[in-house]
Amino acid sequence: MTVPEHRPPPPARGLKVLFGLPAVGRRWPGGLRSALAFGIPAIAAWVLGFHAEALLVVSGSFAVIYGEGRPYRSRWWVVPTAGGALTASVWLGATAGQLALDLGNTGWAQMIPVAVLSLLALVAVYVIAALRLGPPGAFFFVLVCAVSSYVPGAGIGAGHAAACAAIGVASALLVAMSGVLWDPRGPEREAVGAAVGAIERYTGSPTASAADRHAAAARLHSAWSAVYDAGAARLSSRPVLVRRLFDAHLAFAATISERADPDRAVDAVPDQLPLARPGVGYRLRRSLHRDSHAASTAMRVFCAAAAAGSLSVALGLSRPDWAILGAVLVLQQGPDRVHGTYRGLQRLGGTLAGVALFAAIFLSPLTGLAVIVVLMVLQFAIEVSVARNYGLAVTFITPLALLMGTLTHPGAVLQDIVVDRIVETTVGVAFAFAALWLLLPAAFRRTLRWSDGRVLSLSAELLTVVRTEDVAAAKALAVRRDVQFELVGSALAGAEAAHNDRRWAHRVWAQHAEVDRFGYQLLAHCWTVTDVGRMDDIEQWQRRLDVVTTEFDASTLG
Fold it and tell me: What would the pLDDT profile of 526-551 be if each residue is shown by its tens digit?
């Protein structure tokens, strides 16, 4: 490889991050599903005379977003699971709001919703970060909880609000599964196509970089998860789609082995499919460490949300939940301070644009069903933009949240809404910036060291297992799966370290790259090993691991 891996990847340009619209594949079908999941039951409710309920349905319809891109075989339970969490968030928010209302809704009574929202953000951010679920993240759970905390003021009980959300969930499930009628294998086919394309770019370029290898490995990992979720890899006969991915995986492993040792020939490979990503329990447990990405992120979110909400209450601001939402949206993706700062700027800019859009809608003569149509358009726009640009997504999230808020504040003055939204969003973003730069300032360093340590410890476990087991045995495959998962985490941690402190990252990158290289080459060797699946050179790999581990332990990463 002619591109040196001892240098960290260059950071993305600020203007590109702030205003760029990276390609993320077709999003309009998902946007259409998101709009219909809300619009169908909302229009029906409005026609039947349930006007307040029509707007509350949107809380549950967000569930459709969490099923996007997933095979239909897993989508049917992912959407209800997310929907159940959204419904519970609605009930929790409305219950907290009712308690505050019963206590007079002044002073310390408002701290009840603040505490509930902060704790919900802590749990939701941790779970989604630990599971590596990606966009849209935990934000919508906190959003619907925040909005629901004010519905008791409109005379709507917690059970009633949750029932409306559940209707939205049912609609989301029907809409999310509708594509199975005409393209039942579409999601997994797209995942495999993306993986094959990334692998071909890596194997076809002699100057491919570590970033190219990481991208191919991540796509490959996602594609195997998709075919397993779809049930394709469990069929007695191997479908064309699985064979295509399997061949690409072999080519990827062979290329890594060849570039590591050009003199070593690859004669045969075990005809054994890899395992998918680790289970939910494993991913949640492994992140129960103070230095994990999920733990660091969740702690920052909780502290910033609680502080922003508390200050809003102390200052007598009308909507402390907006300050909390501002902090959560900035921080939910992790401890990357630079990208977090960009997200904060996007949050502020998107809020200003969103408030202007809301003002135009508020002052327009639109009423009734026309407002529902507007909300459908906003739902569509959110789904299309949420994975591409935070600022653009916030531009549509803001008027949607404010329109939902008009249900609980029907007589609110536009000027008050606009000023409160801007002021409290600024408070939330300010606390998010403080958390990014002052709270756990070395989190990215500890996360990188922890992630690399996980790679080494699981590599040692793999070598121990293959001393007595074939590389294709169930136990060996499970550890190989875990090593791959940790390698992806190590790559993500390395990118965050490079973004946060390039001078420090330059000093430690060679050691990090060596850990990374060893893990990938060990996995590739397991794929290309001959002699009926048994490794005959374990001691050589063990000596190399001992050297890498010794250098890692003696390094100054922490």
Answer: 877 754 557 778 888 999 999 999 98
CB 516 within 8 A of CB 8: no
> Of the candidates 394, 328, 401, which has an alpha carbon nearest to the alpha carbon of residue 128?
328
The answer for residues whose C-beta is within 8 angstroms of residue 476's C-beta and 6 or more apart is 462, 465, 466, 469, 470, 526
Neighbours of 101 (CB within 10 A): 15
Q: Are residues 408 and 557 in the same domain?
A: no
pLDDT at 232 over 70: yes
pTM of the full predicted structure? 0.89
Each as own residue / partner, the long-range contacts of residues 215-222 (CB below 8 Å, 24 or more positions apart, any chain) are 216/252, 217/252, 217/484, 217/487, 217/488, 217/491, 217/520, 218/488, 218/491, 219/191, 219/194, 219/195, 220/195, 220/245, 220/248, 220/249, 220/252, 221/277, 221/484, 221/485, 221/488, 222/191, 222/194, 222/195
Element (H, E) at 183: none
Name the residue among 69, 53, 113, 61 with its Cα closest to residue 86.
61
Q: In whole angstroms, what is the distance from residue 448 CA to residue 495 CA?
A: 9
Q: 370 and 460 share a domain?
A: no
348 and 429 Cβ atoms separated by less than 8 Å: yes
Cα 146 to its chain centre, rounded Å, is 21
Q: What value does the mean pLDDT of the chain take?
A: 86
Cα 84 to its chain centre, rounded Å, is 18
Rounded to 5°, angle at Cα 221 from 181 and 2? 130
Element (H, E) at 12: none
Is residue 257, in this structure, part of any structural domain at all? no
Domain count, the chain: 2
Please give the radius of gyration of the chain, using alpha carbons only, rounded to the nearest integer: 25
Q: Is residue 31 located within the same domain as residue 64? A: yes
Residue 417 — very low, low, confident or very high, per pLDDT cuts 50/70/90? confident
Q: What is the DSSP letter of 11?
A: P
Sign of the torsion formed by the C-alpha atoms of 27, 31, 34 and 36: negative
- Do the beta carbons of residue 393 and residue 382 sit within 8 Å? yes
- Contact indicator for 148, 161 with CB cutoff of 8 Å: yes
Copy the structure tokens of residue 68.
């996007």
**464-490: per-residue pLDDT in tens?**
998 888 888 888 889 998 998 999 899
Token pair listed for 9: 């990847």
Distance separating the N- and C-terminal Cα atoms of the chain? 29
How would residue 261 be classed by pLDDT, with cut points 50, 70 and 90?
Answer: low
Which domain covers residue 68, as residue numbers? 26-182+282-438
Show the tokens assigned to 468: 């007595």
Helices (H) and strands (E) in the chain, counts: 23, 0
Q: Are residues 303 and 337 in the same domain?
A: yes
Q: Which amino acid is at 11?
A: P
Residue 43, in any domain of the structure: yes
